[in-house]
Amino acid sequence: MGSSPAFHLTDRALAAEQVGAMVTRMVQLAPRPHDYDEQWPRPLLDAWTSVAAGMPPTMAERRLWPHYAYRVHAYLREHHRSLPERASGLSAAMGTFLNHLTRRSCPMTTTFLTAVGLEPFPTICEGDDLAAVIARTLTDRDAALREGDIVVIASRAVSVAEKRRVDLATIVPGAQARRIAETTGKPATLVQLILDESTEHHLATERGPIIARHRLGYQLASAGIDHEGTAARLLPADPDASARRIRDDLATATGIRPAVVIADSEGRPDRRGATILAIGAAGIRPLRTTTHTAPEGTTKHQEETLTDLVAACGGIILGQRGRGVPVAIIRGVAYEPGDDGVQSILHR
């Protein structure tokens, strides 16, 4: 489409608070911060005034998308980005716009999101400052966090940084561990460590996996322990505290205070393979409640583990073993800020 006719603020009578609100919103959403300081393209103003007047956002967005997509695409081409970068930038911009529109009528609605792996990512070593590594990697990629972003981190990266390695040669297996080892084929020392880290366990099948309730309350395959040859890697000692620390350190390093979710793989007892769930969280309340009113007037409420949904979204990227991407940035999810942590929703 061609360029839209310019719309000057003086062309139409608007209340000062309306102008201020629109300028604030456009500064947040425009590809460049000052694109709309002096004049407004007509499609943008018409869409915003329509929503303010009561038009359903889903109708107004149809007018807005083509214009905004055109501007963002032109901006990305102007800066000679690669095709994947253009596609990612355009997708993120469209999603941000749509989510801001729909939140005017339903504040906790997510209609569009993006998930981007932070790569290439350096190898994490014991004692590393994980937040500092994430901040440097963002800078190296010429990328930046935004308010509302959720940083999903693989639990193993946190465990490595926190020096949670155990030498299996130091573990003495008991009789129960030896019996389970004979059945499952796992090293008896590893089985003993699983038993030490859990309060209860069962075998999903005769050959495993071992589904254990970790002493922190999580139900995980092998109590969340990663086997590394002659050693094993335990979960972070307090995943919620780890998430809060990383969140605070990222805020100091970047000036943005994102939510942080620490994700770990989980073996399901009813099927093969593993999925992803959250074991730690900061800046995002772990539960959301969705409400639906049926035509006959009955209302139903449902609690959803939002942090698990976020972890699973990031897990599509993090779960590709051998790729070396322990961090993903999720953008566009509507959530309620909070430091309740995953521990707050566990059954005791």
Quick summary:
The chain is an alpha+beta fold and 348 residues long.
Which terms summarize this structure?
single chain, 348 residues, alpha+beta, 5-stranded mixed beta sheet, 10 helices, 15 strands, globular, disordered N terminus
Structure description:
The chain is α+β, with helices and mostly antiparallel strands. Among the domains are: 1-108, no CATH class; 165-233, CofE-like domain (CofE-like fold), CATH 3.90.1660.10. It is built from 10 helices and 15 strands. The strands form 5 sheets. A 5-stranded mixed sheet has the order 3-15-4-11-12. A 3-stranded antiparallel sheet has the order 5-10-9. Strand 9 (226-228) and strand 10 form a beta hairpin. Helix 2 (42-52) runs antiparallel to helix 3 and helix 3 packs antiparallel against helix 4. The longest helix is centred in the first third of the chain and has 22 residues, at 57-78. The model is unreliable at 1-14, 29-39 and 101-106 (pLDDT under 50).
What order do the strands of the largest sheet run in, or round the barrel if closed?
A: 3-15-4-11-12
Largest sheet: 5 strands, mixed
Describe the global form.
Answer: globular
What is the helix content?
25-40%
pLDDT < 50 runs, ≥5 residues = 1-14, 29-39, 101-106
Portion of residues in beta strands equals: 15-25%
